Amino acid sequence: MITKNEAHNIADCLCSVLFADQVVVLDSDSTDGTIEISRSMGAEVSISLDWQGFGIQKNRALDIATCEWVLSIDADERITPELAQEIQAQLAQAPVNGRSVAFAIPRLTQFCGVWIRHCGWAPDYVLRLFKRGEAHFSNDLVHEKLLLMRPDTTVVRLKNPLLHYSYPTPEHYWRKLQRYSQDWAHERHARGQTTTMSRAALAAIAAFFRSYVFRLGFLDGAMGFAVCTMQAQSAFGKYFELYYLGRQHDK
Protein backbone atom coordinates (compact mmCIF):
# COMPACT_ATOMS: atom_id res chain seq x y z
CA MET A 1 0.00 0.00 0.00
CA ILE A 2 1.02 3.62 -0.43
CA THR A 3 0.45 6.11 2.38
CA LYS A 4 0.59 9.75 3.37
CA ASN A 5 -0.55 10.76 6.87
CA GLU A 6 -2.82 7.75 7.39
CA ALA A 7 -2.32 7.28 11.15
CA HIS A 8 -6.10 7.25 11.64
CA ASN A 9 -6.46 4.33 9.23
CA ILE A 10 -3.25 2.36 9.06
CA ALA A 11 -3.56 0.16 12.17
CA ASP A 12 -6.99 -1.21 11.25
CA CYS A 13 -5.88 -1.74 7.66
CA LEU A 14 -2.74 -3.63 8.69
CA CYS A 15 -4.71 -5.76 11.16
CA SER A 16 -6.94 -6.86 8.29
CA VAL A 17 -3.99 -8.20 6.26
CA LEU A 18 -2.18 -10.17 8.96
CA PHE A 19 -2.60 -13.30 6.83
CA ALA A 20 -0.09 -11.89 4.29
CA ASP A 21 3.49 -13.16 4.23
CA GLN A 22 4.84 -9.69 3.49
CA VAL A 23 3.35 -6.23 4.01
CA VAL A 24 4.90 -3.39 2.02
CA VAL A 25 4.15 0.24 2.90
CA LEU A 26 5.56 2.96 0.65
CA ASP A 27 5.14 6.25 2.47
CA SER A 28 5.35 9.83 1.18
CA ASP A 29 7.07 11.23 4.31
CA SER A 30 4.13 11.17 6.71
CA THR A 31 4.35 13.39 9.77
CA ASP A 32 1.48 11.94 11.84
CA GLY A 33 2.91 8.63 13.03
CA THR A 34 1.96 6.49 10.03
CA ILE A 35 5.54 5.29 9.56
CA GLU A 36 6.03 4.41 13.24
CA ILE A 37 2.70 2.56 13.49
CA SER A 38 3.41 0.61 10.32
CA ARG A 39 6.85 -0.48 11.46
CA SER A 40 5.58 -1.43 14.92
CA MET A 41 3.06 -3.76 13.25
CA GLY A 42 5.68 -5.53 11.19
CA ALA A 43 5.28 -3.77 7.84
CA GLU A 44 8.30 -3.19 5.59
CA VAL A 45 8.30 0.59 5.30
CA SER A 46 10.08 2.57 2.59
CA ILE A 47 9.91 6.32 2.04
CA SER A 48 9.63 8.07 -1.30
CA LEU A 49 9.73 11.87 -1.43
CA ASP A 50 9.45 12.21 -5.20
CA TRP A 51 5.66 12.14 -5.65
CA GLN A 52 4.70 11.78 -9.32
CA GLY A 53 1.17 10.48 -8.95
CA PHE A 54 -0.74 7.47 -7.68
CA GLY A 55 0.14 5.18 -10.58
CA ILE A 56 3.89 5.68 -10.41
CA GLN A 57 3.89 5.45 -6.61
CA LYS A 58 2.00 2.16 -6.67
CA ASN A 59 4.43 0.76 -9.21
CA ARG A 60 7.27 1.72 -6.88
CA ALA A 61 5.59 -0.19 -4.07
CA LEU A 62 5.07 -3.11 -6.45
CA ASP A 63 8.81 -3.16 -7.18
CA ILE A 64 9.51 -3.67 -3.48
CA ALA A 65 7.20 -6.68 -3.13
CA THR A 66 8.92 -10.07 -3.34
CA CYS A 67 6.11 -12.61 -2.89
CA GLU A 68 4.54 -14.54 -5.77
CA TRP A 69 1.12 -12.93 -5.34
CA VAL A 70 0.37 -9.25 -4.73
CA LEU A 71 -2.68 -7.70 -3.09
CA SER A 72 -2.91 -3.94 -3.60
CA ILE A 73 -4.89 -2.19 -0.88
CA ASP A 74 -5.45 1.40 0.26
CA ALA A 75 -5.14 2.50 3.87
CA ASP A 76 -8.87 3.25 4.12
CA GLU A 77 -9.81 -0.28 3.02
CA ARG A 78 -10.27 -3.42 5.11
CA ILE A 79 -10.06 -7.12 4.27
CA THR A 80 -12.79 -8.96 6.18
CA PRO A 81 -12.04 -12.39 7.70
CA GLU A 82 -14.37 -13.91 5.11
CA LEU A 83 -12.54 -12.22 2.25
CA ALA A 84 -9.17 -13.26 3.70
CA GLN A 85 -10.33 -16.89 3.77
CA GLU A 86 -11.63 -16.65 0.21
CA ILE A 87 -8.35 -15.16 -1.02
CA GLN A 88 -6.30 -17.89 0.65
CA ALA A 89 -8.56 -20.60 -0.76
CA GLN A 90 -8.36 -19.16 -4.27
CA LEU A 91 -4.57 -18.87 -4.21
CA ALA A 92 -4.25 -22.42 -2.90
CA GLN A 93 -5.95 -23.68 -6.05
CA ALA A 94 -4.66 -21.05 -8.49
CA PRO A 95 -3.53 -22.48 -11.86
CA VAL A 96 0.03 -23.74 -11.89
CA ASN A 97 0.14 -24.92 -15.51
CA GLY A 98 1.28 -21.65 -17.02
CA ARG A 99 -2.15 -20.05 -17.16
CA SER A 100 -2.47 -16.51 -15.85
CA VAL A 101 -5.21 -15.48 -13.44
CA ALA A 102 -6.03 -12.26 -11.54
CA PHE A 103 -8.82 -11.51 -9.08
CA ALA A 104 -11.36 -8.70 -8.94
CA ILE A 105 -12.84 -7.92 -5.53
CA PRO A 106 -16.29 -6.34 -4.98
CA ARG A 107 -15.79 -3.14 -2.98
CA LEU A 108 -18.44 -1.77 -0.64
CA THR A 109 -18.02 1.91 0.24
CA GLN A 110 -19.27 3.68 3.34
CA PHE A 111 -20.40 7.31 3.14
CA CYS A 112 -20.97 9.22 6.40
CA GLY A 113 -21.64 5.99 8.28
CA VAL A 114 -23.96 4.42 5.66
CA TRP A 115 -23.03 1.63 3.25
CA ILE A 116 -23.92 2.77 -0.27
CA ARG A 117 -25.30 -0.14 -2.32
CA HIS A 118 -26.36 1.72 -5.46
CA CYS A 119 -25.41 5.06 -7.11
CA GLY A 120 -22.89 3.22 -9.28
CA TRP A 121 -20.83 2.54 -6.18
CA ALA A 122 -21.81 -1.12 -5.87
CA PRO A 123 -20.99 -3.64 -7.08
CA ASP A 124 -17.66 -1.92 -7.60
CA TYR A 125 -15.26 -4.63 -8.73
CA VAL A 126 -11.63 -3.59 -8.34
CA LEU A 127 -8.76 -5.58 -9.82
CA ARG A 128 -6.37 -5.90 -6.89
CA LEU A 129 -4.99 -9.43 -6.56
CA PHE A 130 -2.52 -10.65 -9.16
CA LYS A 131 0.71 -12.56 -9.70
CA ARG A 132 3.81 -10.41 -9.42
CA GLY A 133 5.32 -9.75 -12.83
CA GLU A 134 2.01 -10.19 -14.67
CA ALA A 135 0.50 -6.75 -14.03
CA HIS A 136 1.47 -3.16 -13.29
CA PHE A 137 -0.30 0.15 -12.72
CA SER A 138 -0.84 2.83 -15.32
CA ASN A 139 1.24 5.97 -14.80
CA ASP A 140 -1.83 8.19 -14.36
CA LEU A 141 -1.55 10.97 -11.84
CA VAL A 142 -4.95 10.00 -10.43
CA HIS A 143 -7.46 7.18 -11.03
CA GLU A 144 -4.69 4.77 -11.96
CA LYS A 145 -5.63 1.38 -13.41
CA LEU A 146 -4.10 -2.04 -13.02
CA LEU A 147 -2.92 -3.22 -16.42
CA LEU A 148 -2.61 -6.94 -17.08
CA MET A 149 0.52 -7.81 -19.07
CA ARG A 150 -0.70 -11.12 -20.48
CA PRO A 151 -3.67 -11.09 -22.89
CA ASP A 152 -4.65 -14.60 -21.85
CA THR A 153 -5.16 -13.67 -18.20
CA THR A 154 -8.44 -14.89 -16.73
CA VAL A 155 -10.08 -12.45 -14.31
CA VAL A 156 -11.98 -14.19 -11.51
CA ARG A 157 -14.53 -12.29 -9.44
CA LEU A 158 -14.44 -12.95 -5.71
CA LYS A 159 -17.64 -12.98 -3.66
CA ASN A 160 -16.81 -11.33 -0.34
CA PRO A 161 -16.54 -7.52 -0.31
CA LEU A 162 -13.59 -5.29 0.40
CA LEU A 163 -14.78 -2.65 2.88
CA HIS A 164 -13.97 0.93 1.93
CA TYR A 165 -14.13 3.58 4.67
CA SER A 166 -13.36 6.44 2.32
CA TYR A 167 -15.79 9.16 3.41
CA PRO A 168 -16.50 9.19 7.17
CA THR A 169 -17.56 12.87 6.96
CA PRO A 170 -18.53 15.29 4.18
CA GLU A 171 -15.21 17.07 4.76
CA HIS A 172 -13.32 13.93 3.72
CA TYR A 173 -15.26 13.83 0.48
CA TRP A 174 -14.61 17.50 -0.31
CA ARG A 175 -10.88 17.16 0.37
CA LYS A 176 -10.61 14.16 -1.95
CA LEU A 177 -12.79 15.88 -4.52
CA GLN A 178 -10.53 18.94 -4.58
CA ARG A 179 -7.36 16.88 -4.91
CA TYR A 180 -8.69 14.52 -7.57
CA SER A 181 -10.32 17.31 -9.57
CA GLN A 182 -7.13 19.35 -9.65
CA ASP A 183 -4.94 16.35 -10.53
CA TRP A 184 -7.37 15.20 -13.24
CA ALA A 185 -7.59 18.68 -14.77
CA HIS A 186 -3.84 19.34 -14.68
CA GLU A 187 -3.08 15.98 -16.26
CA ARG A 188 -5.47 16.59 -19.14
CA HIS A 189 -4.39 20.20 -19.54
CA ALA A 190 -0.82 18.95 -19.93
CA ARG A 191 -2.05 16.71 -22.75
CA GLY A 192 -3.55 19.72 -24.50
CA GLN A 193 -7.18 18.90 -23.71
CA THR A 194 -9.63 21.81 -23.34
CA THR A 195 -13.29 22.14 -22.43
CA THR A 196 -16.14 24.63 -22.15
CA MET A 197 -18.42 25.81 -19.38
CA SER A 198 -21.31 24.12 -21.19
CA ARG A 199 -19.43 20.81 -21.06
CA ALA A 200 -18.90 21.26 -17.32
CA ALA A 201 -22.60 21.93 -16.74
CA LEU A 202 -23.71 18.99 -18.87
CA ALA A 203 -21.26 16.69 -17.10
CA ALA A 204 -22.81 17.61 -13.76
CA ILE A 205 -26.39 17.07 -14.96
CA ALA A 206 -25.53 13.76 -16.62
CA ALA A 207 -23.66 12.54 -13.55
CA PHE A 208 -26.64 13.17 -11.27
CA PHE A 209 -29.25 11.48 -13.45
CA ARG A 210 -26.95 8.56 -14.23
CA SER A 211 -26.30 7.90 -10.54
CA TYR A 212 -29.67 8.78 -9.02
CA VAL A 213 -32.04 7.40 -11.67
CA PHE A 214 -30.30 4.86 -13.88
CA ARG A 215 -28.05 3.45 -11.16
CA LEU A 216 -30.87 3.48 -8.59
CA GLY A 217 -29.29 5.94 -6.18
CA PHE A 218 -32.74 6.83 -4.88
CA LEU A 219 -32.86 3.40 -3.19
CA ASP A 220 -30.10 4.56 -0.83
CA GLY A 221 -32.39 7.21 0.65
CA ALA A 222 -31.11 10.55 1.87
CA MET A 223 -27.46 9.51 1.72
CA GLY A 224 -28.00 8.26 -1.82
CA PHE A 225 -29.31 11.67 -2.82
CA ALA A 226 -26.29 13.30 -1.15
CA VAL A 227 -23.86 10.98 -2.95
CA CYS A 228 -25.45 11.61 -6.35
CA THR A 229 -25.50 15.37 -5.78
CA MET A 230 -21.86 15.36 -4.74
CA GLN A 231 -20.94 13.24 -7.76
CA ALA A 232 -22.58 15.89 -9.92
CA GLN A 233 -20.53 18.56 -8.16
CA SER A 234 -17.43 16.45 -8.66
CA ALA A 235 -18.09 16.16 -12.39
CA PHE A 236 -18.61 19.90 -12.66
CA GLY A 237 -15.56 20.66 -10.54
CA LYS A 238 -13.04 18.74 -12.59
CA TYR A 239 -14.26 20.15 -15.91
CA PHE A 240 -14.44 23.65 -14.49
CA GLU A 241 -10.84 23.32 -13.27
CA LEU A 242 -9.82 22.25 -16.78
CA TYR A 243 -11.80 25.17 -18.24
CA TYR A 244 -10.04 27.58 -15.88
CA LEU A 245 -6.59 26.24 -16.77
CA GLY A 246 -7.40 26.69 -20.44
CA ARG A 247 -8.42 30.31 -19.92
CA GLN A 248 -5.24 31.03 -17.98
CA HIS A 249 -3.16 29.47 -20.73
CA ASP A 250 -4.84 31.60 -23.40
CA LYS A 251 -4.16 34.90 -21.62
In short:
With 251 residues, this protein is of the alpha/beta class.
Inertia-based shape: globular
The residue ranges in which pLDDT falls below 50 over 5 or more consecutive positions are none
Beta content: 15-25%
* SSE topology string: EHEHEHEEHEEEEEEEHHH
Describe the secondary-structure layout.
Layout: E1 2-3, H1 10-15, E2 24-27, H2 34-40, E3 44-47, H3 54-64, E4 69-71, E5 77-79, H4 81-92, E6 101-111, E7 114-116, E8 124-131, E9 135-137, E10 146-148, E11 154-157, E12 162-167, H5 170-190, H6 197-214, H7 221-250
Parallel strand pairs: 1-2, 2-3, 6-11, 6-12
Antiparallel strand pairs: 4-8, 5-12, 6-7, 6-8, 9-10
Helix pairs in contact: 5-7, 6-7
Commentary on this structure:
There is one protein chain. By secondary structure, the protein is α/β, with parallel strands linked by helices. Helices cover 42% and strands 22% of the residues. Strands 4, 5, 6, 7, 8, 11 and 12 form a 7-stranded mixed beta sheet that branches. A 3-stranded parallel beta sheet has the order 1-2-3, with helices on both faces. Helix 2 (34-40) links the parallel strand 2 (24-27) and strand 3. The mean pLDDT is 94.
